Amino acid sequence: MLKRFIERPVLSTVISIILLLLGGLSLFTLPVTLFPDIAPPSVQVTAVYPGANAEVVARTVATPIEEAVNGVENMTYMTSNSSNDGSMNLTVFFRQGTNPDIAAVNVQNRVSIANSQLPPEVVQAGVSTQRCKTVF
Question: Yes or no: is domain 42-131 CATH 1.10.10.10?
Answer without folding.
Answer: no
